Amino acid sequence: MSRATITGSLPKPAWLAEPNTLWPRWRLDGAELAAAKRDATLLWLKLQEDAGLDIVTDGEQSRQHFVHGFLEAVNGIDFAHKVPMGIRDNRYEAMVPQVVDVLTLRGRVHESEARLCRAHTTRALKFTLPGPMTVVDTIADRFYGDKVKLAFAVADLLNQEARALVADGVDVIQFDEPAFNVYMRDAAGWGIDALHRAIDGLQCTTCVHICYGYGIKANIDWKAGLGAEWRQYAEVFPALARSRIDQVSLECVNSHVPPRLLELLEGKDVLVGVIDVANDAIESPEAVAATLELARRHVPRTKLIACTNCGMAPMAWEIALRKLKALAAGARLAGI
Fold first, then answer.
1. What would the pLDDT profile of 162-187 be if each residue is shown by its tens digit?
2. pTM of the model
3. Among the four residues 9, 260, 269, 336, which has the most C-beta atoms within 10 Å?
4. What is the CATH number of the domain that holds 153?
5. CA-CA distances (angstroms) from residue 274 to 18, 142, 242, 331?
């Protein structure tokens, strides 16, 4: 095994949902859908183990989307009347649910997935949740009237579920915050404050994932205009280094992120993106190791974990599996 993991999401098999899309339609419903979600989760759990990853996830097989998969269990959100809204600073438009009342949880959100995984693996188990700032940026607020107030309301719910996940046996809880690379000043302020609310009292390893987005056209086009050096991380990394978050997951390979920016995360475990999710080219173990060796010039080896740049949800199944194997093999080759 090697110190390697994925960001969180993996492609859903074609018998569970339509393939190669970020918002897949389920193929089944009712009890059959629930059974298919379980099957897909166990299959990817086994494939991650076979690939050699020492930190595994549920692959988000039971969630249609990484944000909405949590929000579907929240009272006060109207999914019946979605509205168009520009998200990630209007990078693209999506149909989003509306906040219409005080937010509360109807009950547990991911209990069944977490307990299923814990019962079927002895490896470290990571579970992903959307970060408060990214949730705020992915829903239309018609009730709170203030982004910070809404973010803290969301953080309280995330904390409630996260504490329960730890009781289920989860070892690492990761909050996905792609919005941190868009609203950098706010991220370094109330964004991290909201994260602290979300991790309050957690007896597990905590992580935040900050990337430049899934490998979809809107994100690829955006990155093409960011210039020769992507310095968004420089605005939030110093604040994260001072935060109570244990780990930071970031995009690295095939990006224009200056590697020296990793030094701004002194003291944190750094999950280095060594697998590109924006193309289907399969990285060689040697290429993965080379990216890790580049990162090692700025981060101690003991603080490095090999990872993917972002989630693999929209990717073809076979491509994702081959990339997983390259991820683990490259981490072994680099000696981490």
1. 999 999 999 999 999 999 999 999 99
2. 0.96
3. 9
4. 3.20.20.210
5. 27, 40, 25, 9
